[in-house]
User: Fold this.
Amino acid sequence: MTYVVTENCIRCKYTDCVDVCPVDCFREGPNFLVIDPEECIDCTLCVAECPAEAIFAEDDVPADQQGFIALNAELSAKWIPIVERKEPPADADDWRGVKDKLKFLER
Assistant:
């Protein structure tokens, strides 16, 4: 089982999770992070660190977020690894908890 970043991360892009990842499985896009399912070792450390509560075990991804399993796999093959924490966008807190953000995902 791997972990999956879901919609809550879009436009928030907090990187607290990156700091605790022992295998550097996070990949960075313009306004979203994903987890490379081939690199993730299922350690669970990132889940508690995510301020947006956007990371789930693959088996626990909410029904309305299932598409993010494939999206993480797709984008992790294209995006570059992120290995250290960065400052979130200035308006990250404004986007936290906003629903239906997929349309704002920048690839």
User: Anything to note?
Assistant: Residues 9 and 54 are 6 Å apart (CA to CA). The beta strands are 3-5, 26-28, 33-35, 55-57, 80-81. DSSP finds four helices and five strands in the chain. The longest strand covers residues 3-5.
